[in-house]
Each structure stands twice: as structure tokens, then as C-alpha cells.
Amino acid sequence: xxxxxxQPSLQELVTRWLALDTNPATRQDIERxxxxxxxxxxxxxxxxxxxFGTAGLRARMEAGFSRMNNLTVTxxxxxxxxxxxxxxxxxxxxGVVVGYDHRHHSQAFAECTATAFIANGFKVWLLAxxxxxxxxxxxxxxxxxACGVMITASHNPKDDNGYKVYWENACQIIPPHDRxxxxxxxxNQTPWAAPKPLAALQANPLCQSVATTVAExxxxxxxxxxxxxxxxxxxxxxxxxxxxxxxxxxxxxRAFRAFKLPPFTIVASQVQPDPDFPTVRFPNPxxxxxxxxxxxxxxxxxxPVVFANDPDADRFAVAExxxxxxxxxxxxxxxxxxxxxxxxxxxxxxxxxxxxxxLSSAVxxxxxxxxxxxxxxxxxxxxxxxxxxxxxxxxxxxxxxxxIFGYEEALGYMVPQLVPDKDGICVLALFAELATDLYxxxxxxxxFMDTLYERYGYFMSSNGYVLCPDPTKLQQAFAGIRYGTKSxxxxxxxxxxxxxxxHLRYPRTFGSANIxxxxxxxxxxxxxxxxxxxxxxPADTIPKLPVSVSSEMITFWFDNQCILTxxxxxxxxxxxxxxxxxxxxxxxxxxxxxRMEAQIRIDLAKLLGMx
Length: 611
Hints:
This protein is α/β, with parallel strands linked by helices. Strand 17 and strand 18 (501-507) form a beta hairpin. The radius of gyration is 25 Å and the shape is globular. It starts with 9 loop residues before the first helix and ends with a helix. The relative contact order is 0.08.
């Protein structure tokens, strides 16, 4: 390969890697690929560096600039270290929290991280041993640290790992920090020091092992969230718990003790941390079949309820056996609504006078908004992701609100006064307490959810995706929605003017209903769809939520009370859709939703050139 347009040749990339990488295994991997002439594989590994974003890093673990390995983790840590020094006073003294889970190479990546910070004179608050992800942001807040790093890929496949960054406020980073860190990474490519093993790091006076004391503080604060008194028949609920081959088991046991709940039955085949996740196809409680072994265990011991965490224990799932023997796996929205109602009701019972607030993300159910309106609670919607939910919860606190709960439909739940991020252990204890109270009064979780539907209205969701391995087709699909395609003539479109875009032509219909309102957080438009829409002042159509031209997201409101959000996945080759219908009649809502989803999948296939 020759060098064109200042692009390095493949040989130059190989030479650069070997000059920087000191790990024998990954060096040999690149040398072997080079020796065998595997140019396509080398291009994939070396040409485009792994991108640092608001989610930090996440990729397959193997040699190469585009992958997770000792070198790329070291480079990320050096860039983060430099950026924190530039942004935060007394950063070295305040230090960095470093934690890791059980995935392959997690400890090694944590060692690389700690080594880089110590090399620049930082104090390191080391959570040595396996920890659940929420303990890192809790430790950032507890030690008033300048930032935190958790080595985890959550529920990704076994070959992946990740590098998750928390800012000084204990929230995941948001722009512009991601761009600033990425720029500093690019300026700090050469390792400052060879990675030190855990024992050597712990012997350094700049490193303090604080896993035990941080956990003590976490559970002491968690216990304050428990109800003042246990249900009169607290042993009425028998439940099964699975950590899904992750780190959650000891944390879940201790959470149950903090809430004075009777012990659960563990899923023996999934109790030990195992980075290969041998009994599940994907270690994600959302995936079909992921709870099968837990439900089988529950059937065997006659326990009617199953609780699950994902491997790093920041997500939480619930299933319940019904009287006819079949299992209901509750959706993320349903769990979120039950938790929100429980926390609001408890606050009201304790005669708390402050203005309560609850939050959910843009792809979650609108039922939380209905709950908030009915109960006189402040509600806010954020962009997708707990980086937005956590930061907004803190902002609401500064405005005088008490943010008591936030959630996202993908089984993520936050109690901000403990951790301003999703925490599967905290909500495990809270939901187990709720379920125990229900069962002490001979009420099932399923029937409790029905009472909430009767109170706030029926909100039914159907979420899915269409695979789209070609990023160009994904971009073309969204462009077709915004600017028109031959399949939808201009006469069937609304022509609107946004502040920075005068050529938007949105469809009048999508799925099987008429569009009444659109929010486009990529093009920067928000407004009602009428024939006069094009006459609106562009300044009046600016979305209230942040706009990002780098991520695709459009939401449609329809005249049949359905809402649809389309977005491109940030980590997978998918066009995701989030569809929800609402109303007072369950049957009508369900039927409208089925009709809409069937037509939406057809429409999306056309836009992607698949039909």
C-alpha cells in the first residue's frame, strides 16, 4: 500500500503499533497477521482508531488500534488524565476511582488505567476485586474524586470489554467532555509507563484500596431507602435471583440484608462470575431465553417471582409465574412505572413536602408523564442514555426539586440520591420490598400493574429493530424520511422550515396513521404538522432537547394516540424503533399497536431498500 492524502501505509501502521505496544501477546498477534499477509484483517484492526465517545470505549478485545487492549486502554487513560488536569482544580489530589468486573482482561485494563494516572501523580482510589458498576460513581461522590473509570462491557458478548468514564459529579460524561478527552487521547499516544500489576499498584503510596470502605458506605446509604417498617408478613414472598454469570450475587445478598428481606434462592448454574457466560446466548436479561434457567429454578422450588441483574449489575429484570403456570416477563417500562409509583406513594405517605421529580428518556413510556401529572409530581424527559438522565437529575436538585427516580426502557433504573446512574442492586432491593408488600396482601405483581393501568391509562409498547449492516443505507433511510423519496410524492408530505434547514419534507403518514407532531433531534426541528407548518417562525421550531447531527433520532406523534421513535443504534448495525399506544381501552390500544407495527416494518423495509 502506498501513502495517499497523508494516510499512513499499512506497513507504517504495523510499525507504529509494534513501536508502542509492549504486551507480548498482542504484539505477536499483529506480527503473525503481518507475516501471513492478512492485509484485510490488519486494515480492520489498525486503520481506524477506536473512537472515544460519551459511552467511553467499547469493542472486541484483541490487538489493534480499533480494539480494546492494554495499549488502547493506556492511551485512553493518558488522554483522560490530561483532560481532567486541564479542567478540574486539584485533580491530582482529588484522584480517580478505578473499578473493574470479571470480564476477560478487566483487571489488566484496570491496572493500565491506574498506572497511567499514578505516572502523572494522581491519587488512585482502587476498587480492587470484582465490583458492580454503580459502585464506581458512588465512590466518585463518596471520595469527591475528579473522575472515575469502570472497566466493563455490561451485557455485551463475551469477546467485548469497555471503558466507562464518570465525571466529578458522579455522572457519565456528556458533550463537550467526550470531544475534549478524545483530543487529549490523540495527543498522548506513547505510554508514560509500563502497566504495573495490582500488587505493585497497591504498594504505591498514591494508591488506596477502598473497596471495603466504599461498599460499607454504599450499603449504609442504601439502607436509608428501605421502608420504615417491614410488611406484617415479610416472609410471604419466595423469590429466585440470578446474576447471569456476573458480579451481582454478593451485592444482591447484602442489599437484601440491608432491607431486612428474607434470603432469595440463587440460580446455582449462574451464580459464579464467568466471563464466558456459558448458559446464556447473550448475557442480557432483555434477550429471549435469558431467564429460562431462573424460571426453571423457580418452578422447582415453587417460587413465584424471578429477579435478575445483568453481568455488571446495573440493569434489573423481573418475571412472575401466573396461576396457570405460565411466566410473565415484565417490560422495562412496566418495572419503571411500578417503581416510580411505589417511590412516589411512599414519599406521600411520609408527608414529605418537597417538590418531587421523576425522569425518563425519550424512548421510554409516556406513562410516567401521565403518572406525574396525576400525582402532582414534576416530570422531565431527556435524551436516550443515563448520562442525560443523571446529569438532569442533578440539575433538578440544584433547582430545588427532589429527583427521586429516573428510568429507561432497557431495564435501567436510577435512584439519584444514592447513585446518579442506573443501579440494578438498589432497585433489586426496592422492587423486592414492593413485591414482598404485595404478596403479604395476597396481590400479584401482574395485578398490581393492572391497577396502575386503570389509574393512569393503558400504555402498551412494542419495540424492535431492522438489521441494517450497511451504514449508507441507514443514512439514506433517514434522509428519505426528511427530504423525500420517489415512493412518497411531495403532495403527501409536510414542507417545513427549521432554523438551519429549509428543505425538510416530512411524510404526512407513517405506519397506518396520520402524523400530527414531529420532533427531529438530528435536523433540529420540532412542531405540529399542519398545512401551515411551513409558515412557522423557525425560531419557534427549535427542539427543547439537545440536537445532535451525529446521531439519528426522529419521533412522530399520530392521530391514533401512538408515538413512534426511530433511531440508529450507536453500537449495533440496527435501525431501532420504539412504538407506544395509549388510551382507556386495552383492546383498542393493543389492536392499534399491532396494525401500526406491521405497517411500520413494511415502511422501514422500503426505506432501507429491502422491499
